Predict the 3D structure of the following.
Amino acid sequence: MAPADAVRRLADEPADHRFKGLPPDAEAAALTVGQLAAQRRDLHTGGFTTPVLTLDADALAHNLALLGRYSARHGLAFAPHGKTCMSPQLFERQLAHGAWGITAAMPHQARVYRAFGIQRIFLANQLVDPAALRWVAAELAADPDFRFVCYVDSVRGVELMDRALGEAATDGPAARPVDVVVELGAGEGARTGARTAQECRAVADAVARTATLRLVGVAGYEAEVPGADPAKVTAWLRGLTALAVTFDEEGRFSALGPGEEIVVSAGGSAWFDAVAEAFAELPPLSAPVLKLLRSGAYVSHDHDWYSKLTPFNRVPQEGGLRPAFRLWAQVVSRPSPTQAFLNAGKRDVSYDLGLPVPELVRGALDGVERPADGVRLVKLSDQHAWLETDTAEDLEVGDLVALAMSHPCTIFEKWQLIPVVEADGTVTEFVRTFF
C-alpha cells in the first residue's frame, strides 16, 4: 500500500462507538469517518456528544505553516516530534510544509510511522531493545530509501546494540549499519545523555569498534539544562556544536559517503530560537551539516504551558502560535450556588502541567456563547471536573463549557479521533491518533 493510500484509508474506518464524542446516529447509519466529515455537521447541533475535544482548523493550519517558514528562514531541517500528536494525517501535513522527517521517542512510535510510509525517522532515545533493533535492521534491509537515526549515550548501550544487530544479521539479509548520534547530556540532574565531552568520546570510540553502527553526528535536548535560561541554554548548545567540530576534526565522521550530511540536532518547543542562533554559528565542516530541529508541541500549541515558554514571546517579529485545542463539556450537576460539575475529567483532558481553564460558556437553550467569567476549575476526578462559580447565575445544568488546556502531549493521547472545526462550528475532518 502506498503511504498516501494508508492515510486516505483512515477515512474508511467506521464512525462508531470506539471514538468518543461522535454522533450516535452516525454509527446507526453505518457511516465511515470520511462520510461523516463530508456531511460537514455543526459541532453543537450535529449530534456530537460531550465531552468532545476539537482542533481549530485555522489555528492548526497557521501553526503548521509558521514552523515550516521559521525552519526554512533559519536554514534548519525540521523533524517534528511525532509523540505529541501520533497522527499520520498531521505527519503528512508537516512533511508537506517541508519537514525532513519525523522524530520518535519509542519503537512503537517508529512502527506507526513506518506503517504510514515515513521514510526518515529520528529516534531521540538510545535503542537497546533487541526485538526493536531486529525490526529496525529488517526495515533497513528491506527499503534502501529508509533513513533511521537514533541516540547513543553509553559504551554499554553501544555494546548491547552491536550484539543485537549482529544476531539480527544472522537471521536474514544483511542490513545497512544503523546511523547513530552521540547524545550530549544537559548536565548533572538532567535527563539522558553522556555528561561530558570525554564520555562522548568514549561512546564514539565504542561505535567505531562496531560494524553494525555508524556515527553520523551529535544531538541533545536543551530544555533539560538545569535552571534553563537563555545564557545556560546557549552555553550548552555551543558545547554541542563544539563537540561536532571536535569529532569532525578527529575524523570520526569518516564513514559518511559523498554528499552525506553530519547531523547536529536539538530543539524542543521552548528554545528553538536559541537553537537557530547557535546552529547558525557552526563553522564549515568536512561534510554538509544537517541542522535538525525537533519541536513538536507547536502543531496544536496550548493555552498555558507552551504559551508561556514559546520562543515567539522572545522574538515576536517571527510570528506567533495559536492554541488549537478546545474541549467542550456539559454541566451535569449544580448541587449548590457556588459549585458545578462537568462531564469531563482526567480521562479527557490534560492536567499534568496545570488544570484546564474555563474559557467559554454556551447556553443550553439559546446557544449563545459568552466568556466564562466567574467560573473556575479547581479539581478533576476521573470523569468529572469540579467547578466553582461566583453566583448561581453563572451556570445552569445543561450549559456547555469550553475548556482551554495545557501541554499538548497529554491531550492528544486521550482521544483517538478529533474533529477539526472551522470558525463557524462546521466539522470538516477528523484527525486519527495512534497511541
Notes: Residues 29 and 410 are 32 Å apart (CA to CA). The mean pLDDT is 96.
